[in-house]
Amino acid sequence: MMGDETTNDVLRTNPEDNMDLQALEREYREKLEDWRQEIQALKDQAADTSDEARDSARQRIDELERQRDAAGRKLDELRDAGHHAIAEMKVGVEMAFKDLQQGIDAARKAAARRAGN
């Protein structure tokens, strides 16, 4: 059948695919670093708030750090899976990144509300 791939075809590494995987990993690692810095900025902002607001922010920040760590683990899985599983793993990484971005956005809004009060 035309278009069918054997297991050996799928598992065969193509240098171009490896470069794509490396570029994707670099891009994702850079994004994780950006988020690490954003989380640190949220921590710094929270330090200047009331005890109650700081406790609330700390809980949110703890969750963001857990999400960031989970996204990093997904990225490690993507790297370890190699090109034969890149499409499937990319979906998992992107979902983890989306969740983390939504959490950071929500934390920014909460920090802005606290700063406005």
How far apart are the first and last residues' alpha carbons, in Å? 66 Å
The helix-strand sequence is: HHHH
The fraction of residues in strands falls at under 5%
**Average pLDDT figure:** 79
- Helical percentage: over 70%
> Which secondary-structure class do the elements indicate?
mainly alpha
Q: Tell me the number of helical segments per DSSP (H or I, 4 or more residues long).
A: 4
Number of structural units classed as domains: 1
Poorly predicted regions are: 1-15
- Rg, alpha carbons: 19 Å
What global shape is seen? elongated
Main sheet properties: none
Count of DSSP strands: 0
Mind explaining what this structure looks like?
This protein has 117 residues and is an all-alpha fold. It has one domain. Helix content is 85%, strand content 0%. It has four helices and no strands. The radius of gyration is 19 Å and the shape is elongated.
List descriptors.
about 120 residues, 4 helices, about 85% helix, disordered N terminus, mainly alpha
Briefly say what this structure is.
The protein has helices spanning 7-11, 15-46, 51-81, 86-116.
What's the topology here?
Layout: H1 7-11, H2 15-46, H3 51-81, H4 86-116
Helix pairs in contact: 2-3, 2-4, 3-4
